[in-house]
Amino acid sequence: MESVISDSVLLAFEILLLSCFYLQFGTALDTVTPSESIKDPEFLISQGGVFRLGFFSFANSTNRYVGILYNQIPVQTVVWVANRNKPLKDSSGILNISDDGNLVVLNGKAEILWSSNITNLVPNATTAHLLDSGNLVLSNGEDGASSLWKSFKDASNAFIETMKIGTDVQRGLKVELKSWKSIDDPSDGSFSFGFEPFNIPELVIRNNNKLYFRSGPWNGNIFIATIMKTVYIDGFHVVADNQRQVYYITHEYSRLKYYELDSQGKLVERTWDAGKGDWINMYFTSQTESCVYGQCGAFGMCDLTKQPICSCLKGFKPRNIEEWSRGNWSSGCFRTTPLQCQRDKNNGSEAGQGDVDGFLKLNMMKVPAFPDLSSINNGECKDQCLKNCSCVAYAYDAGIGCMFWSGDLIDMQKFSTRGVDLYIRLPSSELDKGKSN
């Protein structure tokens, strides 16, 4: 009995000494300071124990990385990596505050493998604090009053709660996800996910900086054409402030759910299942049911329910028959009969004296890329388009207004359960009776 009491007293005394140590040196368990660094295999834990910051390796590799991981999940789950493109080759790594005030990862030779890379810092005045949100924040002073750098703004492949993916046009800032090269190689992959303002804001995925997927324009409630239900019922929040030119998407749902841009360019919803002891992956149907951006070329329409999946719009033919027959549709289609307004211009006639152009209505469509918008009423969209010979299509959404297209129509898709009505301008000779509008 005496031994048990002695051991308990000793343990309490050790805890008290440890607490006094941290109080004396002003170092919290969730903070890196100029005088307190992290050496492999040490780590920090956020105040509530949700995330940890430290060194780790993948199962099939001896490379060492510094990253942020879920702390209370038994499966290693990485949400951010510092030295993703420059792994440590041994366990000599150190994470510390450098002489210039930056947060850096060093190898055993004191070579910098990664840096927060902020200029004009005050030496010996910065600290890095790991929050329960999973955000690592470099600040002036321990009170964190002045944020200098955040891991949330230097994102990896994970989109976790309260992060903001988006663009601040005026300040020239952009935060986007970047895919890993593979499941156990966090170096930069081919894909990125962001929120682009364009003329009307859209979510986009790029492959080697080229458009690969787009969500359709944001109408204030949903991304039209490719409706992502989670945008408005699962904690997502979208801000599209045209006046301030700030556009971002964030979510506040659960710390045991996050989104990951995988190495194949798919945005995956990952939810922790305690019963199975693993993450459950679910792909957005808007992606799995979408064609690759521009797959059918100009004036080509994609329909995944048909074979081949690409076809030319009515009044158009493949630009390259041989390529088209081989399943390469990228050259797109061309108009077989000029628009009446164009012929009137060429003949020097006034519009409206003879036949006039009309519109072919296509239901449940993903609208083409890069529309111009107008706030005029729905009933005026058609007339407005007809007044401009360069207008080749229009659509209407109550949250956006009229959308107009000139030039080539790119990235159209036919859906079976969603989408908007798209009106394609054609000469009257191409319109079957009853299909014009």
From TrEMBL:
One of its GO terms (biological process) is recognition of pollen. CDD domains: B_lectin, PAN_AP_plant. InterPro entries: Bulb-type_lectin_dom, Bulb-type_lectin_dom_sf, Pan_app, S_locus_glycoprot_dom, SLSG/EP1. It comes from the Eukaryota. Keywords: Disulfide bond, Glycoprotein, Signal. Residues 29-151 form the Bulb-type lectin domain. Residues 341-427 form the Apple domain. Signal peptide: none annotated. PANTHER family: BULB-TYPE LECTIN DOMAIN-CONTAINING PROTEIN. Involved in sporophytic self-incompatibility system (the inability of flowering plants to achieve self-fertilization). This is Apple domain-containing protein.
